[in-house]
Design brief:
Strand order of the largest sheet: 3-8-4-5-6-7
Distance between the termini: 200 Å
CATH class of the domain at 140-274: Alpha Beta
Largest sheet: 6 strands, antiparallel
Helix content: 40-55%
CATH topology of the domain at 140-274: endopeptidase fold (from Nostoc punctiforme)
Structural class: alpha+beta
């Protein structure tokens, strides 16, 4: 054994050769790359740039765009105007319909008022006519003549068809009065007279105006049982009845009394006709 074997060495250990060589290679490669890059620097290609051209708005295109905008605005205005016109037309139609309905209502009301006034005037005329007849008969003592004649002419003196007519009308006393009634349980004045004479085969007109001229005119002072009495003028009478003798008559008077038998003084007639 060497006498120096236990003396420690102060020298650093030697690096491994492979690591040193690797480092030298790397450094050499880097330097080579830098050298090559430096040598080739002036020959490098310039970067490529691409220019995108934007379309240019020409004067013609600007005019077309403006015209299109104007046309769109005009269409909007036209639509608004049309909507306003449609709304105005609808309002006018509604107003016209309402005015027409109001005119129809007023016309109907006027028609009803005229009909009511006419009916009232006719009723007043009938009352006036009856009053005039009564006044005339009273002034001329006609009612006295009628009463004296009636007292001398009783129903018991009636014979034949006249007796049958009298029996018919007396049988209906107490029945109701109905305008247009022709029996068997309700009558108006001319309907009762027509039915009574039809029972003996005599066909009379339906209404009082025609019945007042159906036979021979006779004086109220010369009445006979079975004569037709009328109130109003001959040909324009508004009421009829049948003289039954004894100074009395039977008639369908009105809705309040119905068919009644009354003395001539109760409602003096205007005239009489004889059919039988």
């Amino acid at each position: 054994m060497s006498h120096t074997a236990h003396i420690p060495s102060h020298r650093k250990p030697r690096r491994n050769a492979p690591k040193t060589a690797l480092r030298a290679g790397v450094a050499g490669g880097v330097l080579s790359t830098i050298a090559v890059a430096g040598a080739a620097g002036p020959a490098q290609a310039e970067p490529v740039t691409q220019t995108i051209e934007m379309p240019t708005i020409t004067a013609g295109l600007s005019t077309a765009v403006a015209a299109s905008a104007q046309a769109t605005q005009q269409v909007a205005q036209d639509l608004q105007t049309q909507a306003q016109e449609d709304a105005a037309a609808a309002t006018a139609a509604k107003t016209a319909k309402k005015a027409k309905a109001e005119a129809v209502r007023k016309a109907e009301a006027k028609k009803k008022a005229e009909a009511a006034a006419k009916a009232k005037a006719e009723a007043a005329a009938q009352r006036a006519s009856r009053s005039a007849v009564r006044t005339t008969l009273s002034a001329t003592s006609g009612s006295t003549a009628v009463a004296s004649t009636a007292s001398s002419s009783s129903s018991s003196s009636a014979t034949g068809s006249a007796a049958s007519v009298i029996a018919f009308v007396k049988a209906q006393v107490g029945d109701a009065y109905v305008s247009g009634g022709t029996g068997p349980n309700s009558w108006d004045c001319s309907g009762l007279v027509q039915a009574a004479f039809r029972s003996v085969g005599v066909d009379l007109p339906r209404v009082s105006q025609a019945q007042s001229t159906a036979g021979t005119q006779v004086s109220l002072s010369n009445l006979q049982p079975g004569d037709i009495l009328y109130w109003g003028g001959a040909g324009s009478a508004y009421h009829v009845g049948v003289y039954v003798g004894g100074g009395e008559f039977v008639g369908a008077q009105n809705s309040s009394t119905g068919v009644v038998q009354r003395p001539l003084s109760y409602d003096p007639p205007s005239g009489a006709v004889r059919v039988l």
